[in-house]
Design brief:
23 helices; 2 domains; 4-stranded antiparallel β-sheet; about 600 residues; Rossmann fold; ABC transporter transmembrane region fold; alpha/beta; 6-stranded mixed β-sheet; 10 strands
């Protein structure tokens, strides 16, 4: 954070102003999003603001004629005009109208804020779901996405500020026109006294953005510490290892540092802003005193004095507010940079135009030709020159120590990643030639870190194939295959039982029970390719035995990839690949590999010895 801080603070004033001006380019796309979210609320809000903005000058004009008429009447110069009381009634009507229009503006703002937050949150979710999996493994991208998520919902204030800016501009122009008509120099003096405050506010708002940008990684760490200190996943070790004081202390130290930086900037802004704001006050009272002086000289009537005094007060306040609002919008626009950059990120793993449909049935199988892979954040190859072929109906097991690329192969086959080198063929055609969505329909998968949805049991299974999630017959068939049926029928509400502890009424399951639910999710897809990454890791011995007694029946006719450290599981595969150093070190059936006496036999013997 210190390096980031120094790089930002070392920027020249010119570059900072360049950033502010450049950030204004963020406003048009945000306008489009605002319009998309609620066109009716935007239109109504602008109309009401326009009418509200004109009421101050209209009220001052009517008040001027009322006061001049009263002065001439009390001075016995002339009688009250016949329309006098109509003027009083008009003043009252304008005041009432301004109040009602203000309420309508607030209502439109409220509707717009709600719809915009919903629209932008949906847009972020939709876009995030289309991005490559590798991006989520990049901390810098995760920081950007976090800022985008916060900015998308926190910038509602900027939308309201833009609405206020429009109203303030109309009011300022109408009041300034009255002052300009009397004396252009008077108006110029007012404006010049406000500009320094505007520049100061803009300067400190930019520093606020810079500080916020620097603190993003630290704030993500704060959120992580907060979750660690109060989640059921960490509760056991939190208590047993006495981690509470350690985590709380680390949280307090980091949050204190962030608070200190924020308060330091706030103090500087307070002192400088207060001094610069005094110039605006000098501008107002200077022009006000001059108008009084001219009235005493007889150059202005009481009505004109009233009009000009009100116009000067209103214009002074509105000019300051106008500059402040514009500055706020310009600097709020800086905060939208990450949101727009996030929305501009395009996935690289996509379907090409005119992509092929997945063959049904798959006839030749899947082939890896000299496939190598490295993650973008780490140039070291995870897989090196992999050659393998998976035939239709074949059961293939992948074994090896952690970090040898077993799960990576599964993710390459499902095209969550594209290979760094080489190609993967499906029925003789490059996997990249097929339509992604259609390809994924033919893949059933349960990863080791499978999701546990805080939803009903039926919905948890239905996530495997959302188009049939409401079909209880198909849900039950999948649950029976994974031995989750007995578990679900014992729940208080059966398939309608809410699972997990996040929401009231939920029932927590054991790790093995969750794994049965996840297996049912994979079976529901009824896909041609079934990938099981440590499918029985959390199951007890009896449950594992029950599932694999029916393993042959469950995977009949499907290409199956089985990843497991349990040799009692992988020995049921037709062929076993042993990965070592990112390469295929051995392959064959269980018996063949044991007889060979290589790496597989060594691992098998070590595991078997543990049961003797």
């Amino acid at each position: 954070m210190d390096q980031a801080s120094s790089s930002v603070r070392s920027q020249s004033p010119t570059s900072r102003w360049h950033d502010r001006i450049k950030a204004l380019g963020n406003i048009p796309p945000i306008f489009r999003m605002v319009w998309e979210s609620a066109p009716k609320a935007v239109t109504a809000g602008l109309l009401f603001r326009f009418l509200v903005a004109l009421t101050p000058v209209a009220l001052l004009a009517v008040t001027r004629y009322i006061i001049d008429s009263l002065y001439r009447f009390l001075s016995h110069e002339q009688a009250l005009p016949g329309y006098f009381w109509w003027l009083v009634a008009l003043e009252f009507a304008l005041a009432c109208l301004a109040t009602l229009l203000g309420r309508l503006v607030d209502f439109c703002d409220s509707v717009l804020a709600d719809k915009f937050v919903r629209h932008i949150s949906t847009k972020i979710m939709e876009h995030a779901s289309r991005l490559d999996l590798t991006l989520y493994e990049d901390p810098a991208f995760c920081d950007k996405m976090e800022r985008a998520r916060v900015q998308g919902t926190d910038r509602v204030m900027m939308i309201q500020m833009i609405g206020r800016l429009i109203g303030q501009a109309i009011t300022t122009v109408s009041l300034a026109a009255g002052i300009f008509f009397y004396s252009p120099w008077l108006l110029l003096f007012l404006v010049l006294c406000v500009v320094p405050a505007f520049l100061g506010e803009t300067h400190f708002a930019f520093l606020g953005y810079s500080l916020n940008f620097e603190q993003t990684p630290a704030r993500r760490l704060l959120e992580y510490l907060r979750v660690l200190g109060g989640s059921k996943e960490s509760a056991k070790e939190l208590k047993l290892f006495g981690l509470g004081p350690f985590l709380v202390g680390r949280y307090k130290n980091l949050s204190d540092e962030l608070h200190r930086e924020t308060v330091q900037l706030a103090k500087r802004r307070l002192v400088s802003g207060s001094l610069l704001t005094l110039l605006g006050t000098v501008g107002y009272y200077g022009t006000y005193a001059y108008v009084i002086y001219r009235t005493v000289q007889g150059a202005l009537s009481l009505g004109q004095l009233t009009f000009l005094a009100g116009a000067i007060a209103g214009a002074s306040t509105n000019i300051q507010t106008l500059f402040s609002t514009f500055s706020g919008i310009a600097d709020q626009a800086l905060f939208l940079t990450d949101l727009l950059e996030f929305l501009a990120v395009r996935p690289r793993v996509i379907s090409k135009p005119g992509a092929l449909s997945t063959p049904r049935p798959i006839r030749q199988g899947i082939e890896f030709r000299n496939v190598s892979f490295a993650y973008p954040s780490n140039p070291q190859l995870v897989l090196r020159g992999i050659h393998l072929h998976l035939s239709p109906g074949e059961r293939l097991a992948l074994v090896g120590e952690n970090g040898q690329g077993k799960t990576t192969i599964a993710k390459l086959i499902t095209r969550l990643y594209d290979p760094t080198e080489g190609e993967i063929l499906l029925d003789g055609r490059d996997l990249r030639e097929y339509d992604l969505e259609d390809l994924w329909k033919e893949v059933g998968v349960i990863f080791q870190d499978f999701m546990r949805y805080d939803m009903t049991a039926q919905e948890n299974i239905g996530m495997g194939r959302v188009e049939v999630a409401s079909n209880r017959f198909q849900i039950r068939a999948a649950a029976i295959k994974s031995y989750a049926e007995n578990l679900i029928t014992k729940l208080p509400k059966g398939y309608d039982q809410l699972l997990g502890c996040r929401f009231e009424g939920g029932v927590e399951l054991s790790g093995g029970e969750w794994q049965k639910i996840a297996l049912a999710r994979a079976h529901l897809r009824d896909a041609q390719l079934l990938i099981l990454d440590e499918p029985t890791a959390a199951l007890d011995a009896r449950s594992e035995h029950e599932i694999f007694e029916r393993f042959t029946e469950l995977v009949r006719g499907k290409m199956t990839i089985l990843i497991s450290h349990r040799f009692s599981t992988v020995r049921m595969a037709d062929r076993i690949l042993v990965l070592k150093g990112g390469r295929i070190a051995e392959q064959g059936s269980h018996d063949q590999l044991v007889k060979k006496g290589g790496h597989y036999a060594e691992m098998f013997e070590l595991q078997a010895a543990g049961y003797r």
